[in-house]
Amino acid sequence: MSSQKIDASALTGVSETALLTLQVRANEARRPDAILDDPVAVSLADSIEFDFAKFGSANRQDMALRALTFDTATRAYLRDHPAATVVALAEGLQTSFYRIDASGVSNEFTWLTVDLPPIVALREKLLPPSDRIHTCAQSALDYSWMDKVEDANGVFITAEGLLMYLQPAEAMSLIAECAKRFPGGQMMFDLPPHWFAWWARNGLLRPSLRYRVPPMPFSLSVAGAADLINTVPGVRAVHDVPLPPGRGRVVNTLIWAAYRIPLLDSLRGVTTLLEFG
C-alpha cells in the first residue's frame, strides 16, 4: 500500500458515501473492543487525504455490523463453493476481500470489483494487489460485467450499500438480470426502511451541518423483499438475514427485538439473501 496520501476530494454524490462507510469501519477497527477486525480498512483510511470530519461522528457500529453480515454469508457460500467468483457490485472502498481471505475459508475464490472509474482508480492505487482480484471500471447497471464472470464454480454477488441509490426499476432489473444469468448463484443486498429512505429523499438526513446523505429512491419492506420469490423469475429462495450481535446491551437488545417482534418490521431495514434456481 502506498505511503503517500491520495486526494479523494474528487469523489462526490453517491461515490462519496464510500468514504463515509470506510471512515466508520476504520474507526471501529481501531477500537480495542472492536467488533470488526479490518486492518486493511485502517491502512486505507490513513492513506487517503480527505476531510472526513464533514461526515460527523464516526462512533457508530452500523457499517461494521453490515460488513460482518455480508462476510458471514460470503464465507458460507465459499465453504460450499471454494473456487467460486465473488462479484462486489459498487464495491466502493470496502475491504471485504482481505477480511474473507484472511479468514482462511478458501484460497481458491476469485473476486470481481465492479465500480465507477474514480473508485477503481483509488482502489488500484491504495489497496494491496492480488492476482485473484479483477476489476470492471463501470456502472453495475452496465450488464457487460456479467460477461467477465467465471461462473463454472459458483457465483456470489454482493450489492452492499448499492440498491437504495438506484431507481426502483433499475434495482429490480439488476436483481432480475442476475437471477437470469447466474442460476445456482446467490445475491445479497441491503436496503433501508421506508421512513429512512423518505428522509434521505427529502434531504433530511444530515449527519453534520456539512453533509447531506444522497437521496435513496429504492427501498423494500420485509414483506416486499420476501415476495421477490414470486415477482422475480429465477429466484428460488429468499432469506431475511439478521444482523449479528454488536457491542453493548442496548444495541443487542434493539437488534434482538427488531428481528423477533413482527410489529417492528416496518421500522427496520432488510438484509436479503437470494438463491437463484
From TrEMBL:
Answer yes or no on keyword Transferase. yes
A GO molecular function annotation here is: methyltransferase activity
Under Pfam families, the record lists:
LCM
* Keyword tags: Methyltransferase, Transferase
- What protein name does the entry list? Class I SAM-dependent methyltransferase
BP GO annotations:
methylation
UniProt-listed InterPro entries:
Ppm1/Ppm2/Tcmp (IPR007213), SAM-dependent_MTases_sf (IPR029063), TcmP-like (IPR016874)
Superkingdom: Bacteria
